[in-house]
Amino acid sequence: MPPLPGRSQLWLGLVLGSVCASLGSAVPTSNAQDALNVLLIIVDDLRPSLGCYGDKLIRSPNIDQLASHSLLFQNAFAQQAVCAPSRVSFLTGRRPDTTRLYDFNSYWRAHAGNFSTIPQYFKENGYVTMSVGKVFHPGISSNHSDDSPYSWSVPPYHPSSEKYENTKTCKGPDGELHANLLCPVDVAGVPEGTLPDKQSTEQAIRLLEKMKTSASPFFLAVGYHKPHIPFRYPQEFQRLYPLENISLAPDPQVPAGLPPVAYNPWMDIRQREDVQALNLSVPYGPIPVDFQRKIRQSYFACVSYLDSQVGQLLSALEALQLATSTIIAFTSDHGWALGEHGEWAKYSNFDVTTRVPLMFYVPGRTAPLPKAGEKLFPYINPLDSVSALTEPGRQTMDLVELVSLFPTLAGLAGLHIPPRCPVPSFHVQLCREGQSLLKHFWFHDSEEDLALRDNPRESIAYSQYPRPADSPQWNSDKPSLEDIQVMGYSIRTIDYRYTVWVGFSPHEFLANFSDVHAGELYFVDSDPLQDHNVYNDTQGGDLLRSLTP
Prior knowledge:
Layout lengths: L9 H7 L20 E7 L17 H8 L2 E7 L5 H10 L3 H4 L8 H4 L6 H7 L3 E6 L36 E2 L5 E2 L3 E4 L10 H16 L6 E7 L6 E4 L32 H4 L2 H4 L12 H31 L6 E7 L4 E2 L5 E2 L5 H4 E2 L1 E4 L32 E8 L3 H8 L34 H7 L7 E7 L18 E7 L3 E10 L4 E14 L14 H10 L2
Parallel strand pairs: 1-7, 1-9, 2-14, 3-7, 6-8
Antiparallel strand pairs: 2-12, 2-13, 4-5, 9-13, 10-11, 15-16, 16-17, 17-18
């Protein structure tokens, strides 16, 4: 087991970089005709509840099919489990302490530094860059423009039906329309007769059709909304998950040893009309068991709806004869708790909110090029009867971070990998704080070579989350910068998750590691669900005292 860092060493390790050295820069492609296109699919709030990640309940045949031709990372982690900070982090290749975005209320170019983004870098290297749906978080954090014109060659596209997502379009048991959490709909009966993710798929396919005859390579980012709340999805997907087949979370109680500062009171869930009607106590009051099952049912149904959209997009990519010249990256901005630890939504440092799906399809490298007449991505309707499970492709257990997306996509596309960031790097426009993952794509057949390449005990993933106080309150989930008083810095290794909650100055953007408010320590082998905090126990305390300077 790698040594536990002392409290003052925790974030120093993050700043100095990951343990493993990255590979050198890839050789740029010689001309545009040699360049591989890039399709980046970003999903909102998707935890690894997918068949390809071993979830036998979830119907996700198209994403599983993509995984069968991809390199899949079993242990990928976001740097902050909330939308805007996570997206700005991985799209710039910088951690939240560098972007200085912990909430939704600032634009990094004005607030932290003029940092380049992944699409900007591809654009500057001759790519046509396009954005569909939720790629950057909309609003102040992307300058109300999705970072245009820096990142995109053409104006970003947002579905017209987005504006109805949080309105009263959900039919309740009383027959009236409500702004509910649970919102299966008859698509023909909703405003505009469509849903945002359907529109995004249609627009992405239109752009692919245009790019088929382009002399320039393309970088197309497609951001899907579901399974983000509200769970507004075509009602036919609900029948895939009968309530009698839906179990509760394996650990639905708030752990006895959980520090109050670590708990997220899921206030956004409580604001929905159907949840308000439950009259839950704040902050811990449990949701009734039958409603817990309904939440999980709708989340899973949203995942299958998402899968249908991904399947249509990939099928179109192949029909346009672009699948053999396009890298496909698939990921999420963070996970989502479904009752684990008595929590719902994101807003924490637990694995269930920080762990994300991550896979890369690289033509001819992660899968052989298809033979004549063979298809890689035929559309599979999730609503059809259960088909044979897709055999998984290549996988790695190494812990990796979303902040590695920038250098990895650059390297896979044959562009120079941006240099590692100096400390500090606020003045540096182009650099990256994550390591390139290219080493995982050099496949070997011998057991000895595999052992040399994959050493999970050398990998570490860092996450963090801010809090306004030591106890849960109304803004604990999404505190504004000026209200942040505590920052939870967390490291995840193959053996443990270790989190310290320390004092934080929002005016100086400084953490005080001498001011420890609480701590968490979970050992993965004996406590995979992270329910038994041993930070203050003899086992954890002795370890920490022996390692603290």
